[in-house]
From TrEMBL:
GO molecular function: serine-type endopeptidase inhibitor activity
Record flagged with keyword Cell inner membrane: no
Family affiliation: Belongs to the ITIH family.
Annotated organism of origin: Pelusios castaneus (West African mud turtle)
Protein name according to UniProt: Inter-alpha-trypsin inhibitor heavy chain 2
Amino acid sequence: MQVILHSLPISLRLPPQTEASVEGDDKVSIQSYRVHSTITSRLANTMIQSKVVNKAKHAQSLVFDVQIPKGAFIHNFTMNVNGITFTSSIREKSAARQQYAQARARGKAAGIVRSSALDMENFKAELNVPGGTKVQFEIHYQEVIQRKLGTYEHVIPLQPGRLAKQLEVDVRIIEPQGLRYVNVPNSLGDHFAGITTLSKGEKKAHVSFKPTVAQQRKCPTCSATAVDGNFVVAYDVRREAKAGELEIFNGYFIHYFAPDNLDPLPKNILFVIDVSGSMWGLKMKQTVEAMKTILGDLRPDDLFSIIDFNHNVRNWRDDLVAATPSQMEDAKKYIQGIHPNGGTNINEALLRAIFILKEASRLGMLDPNSVSMIILVSDGDPTVGELKLTTIQKNVKQNIPDDVSLFSLGIGFDVDYDFLERLAHENHGTAQRIFGNQETSSQMKKFYNKVSTPLLKNVEFNYPRESVSDVTQNSFHNYFGGSEIVVAGKVDSSNVQHLQSVITATAANAGLVLETLEDVEGLDDFLKKEEHADPKFTEKLWAYLTINQLLAERWGEMPRVDNDPHFIIHLEKSQENICFNIDSEPGKILNLISDPDSGVAVNGQVIGAKRHENKKLSTYFGKIGFYFKNKGLKVEISTETITLKDGSYSTSLSWSDTGSIIRKRLLVSVKKDRKVTITMDTEMSFLVLLHRVWKKHPVNVDFLGIYLPPTNQFSSSVHGLIGKALCRPWRFRPPSCITCPTCNIIGHHLCCSFCCSGMQKDYRGDRVFGTKVHCWFVHNSGKGFVDGHYKDYLVPHLYSFLKNP
């Protein structure tokens, strides 16, 4: 994420300092760089603070550039400039609270978690300040540390960018289960060997890293820092031979389940390997090396085969075969003889793999307790056969059995990773991007190791309904050795003394039933006495596990416009949707929101498909303009770029970026190739989705969709195609027939006896396929529902207000 703040009017100067030893040629110095992290039962709260001084006589930019682990949630960012603190909230606060209240009122699980929403890996703040200015940057984020290959790894990207007068990393671990081991690998290199200190007790540990300025230097006379990499703390906890560990505190429970003392389940595994021309060279060499190791790791009771594909699809064996030494040796020779060339036919390759597994099951070849999986390795988009990604997804989903998992490995920087990730997640698997370099082989082997040891299948967690509520996902397709399953929920600790759980699963030799019973106050004494423990860790962990569902609901029940362009207006009181299309002409600009009192205008420019189909030209929004008159700011979003304008000043991001721009308390956040969120003063927000199509599609074009949350507070004079509908207290009377061609408004009652009941696509949750929502359709471009004719809403410019609405 990138945050750009421009030229704050600051004129205070600091007295001369004497830290020339850490001062760069640009007269900028880091006075201190501190990272403090506290882990309470896998929940890590991390603070990164940097104090920087501009000692130059002229103004220049001070930069705070940090890497945030993927999946972490930022909950606070502040800048203190010469004693004045500026606070930035990453989330849309009022909207989140409104969503929380609505979810609670509907009886749904709800929690307020400040989310980065961008799933970002980079956070950058840039501040232009006068000479002599001192700035303190500070960011706080939290993450749940996942267990992989038997270890929890807390990774802190440590990249101060220059020497720091004081540099420290301080990590505290509090694990009520007890610590089995803690170690700090030398991930920053031999340069820093022996500097880290570690103290470990039964249930807590402390790690400290404080290199001096001399130790930070790349060489004794160098002015550059050697601190550039990841600081890693690895650990695992003690486990008893029972059905996991229940940790209960402050009305929430967390259930950790990571059994290791089980026999592996047999695997039925299909390796589907892309051998098209783009895999030639290092990618193929590394893939072959990895596959030779992976094949050698198969167990005697595993069944396997290999499919390689370019424009054609080939089977090493027509059926699954046992992993005998001779078969594995033949498979290695086959892999070794592959010569990449030709195109990429992903669709047929995956359908072939699915067919082989289904046939093996039909013929009774598979152990009833075995786990079936497909591992796809590819570096590119399909170029042969079925080319449409959504169709490939549908084909796989319709044909793959429910007990088969699909895992995807995307090799290289230019792979369509989103597509491979969707394929995996829709079919009980996971995906990983692997960069096509010298590390490809080791990355592939590490990924395979995570899924190579299935220990359980069909895992179900059960709790007494009268004691718990709002339980997170409690049913899991597989459990792999070295990982961990985590379930959370609320517990009525005021009325129960113990919480019982029952886990059922299929193991290698039989069905498994595991029971555990835990005192609801068992952790109270320990956690209340531990000064560094997060007292809300159970609540935060529960919220973290449910955040994806809550974020999906965040944009629920909004007026929205997508392709055609079609409009979906949600009537709050009747809980019904009214849908209508606008059949405008390419190039025309339609006003969506016109609110002169609040100074907000939103307009969309229509584009057309490449050609007519069935004598009709489909139309879409290709450009959307936002005008915030009171701030003097304009935002233009096209299918290529996102531009913020302030008078003569202009700055842009492309859809290939993940980043943000802040100006005058207007936040424009971009998630790569997915969406733009615009937030004004945290009180009003807009969402724009990007719909990409295949570049060579003969008809369709890229287009935009816009969504507005019901929490936006427009004035009573708001107008526009969807603006007027926002302020009217509609009451909808469902139609009794389908013959009347008009729509009548009687008072605030909308009486439509013509409306056809049907389904419309909503693309917020599923950007590719969309989700069908129930609608009452108003034909003839919304006639009767829209005031006047739709042509009354045409405006001359992208930032125009409606005249005389």
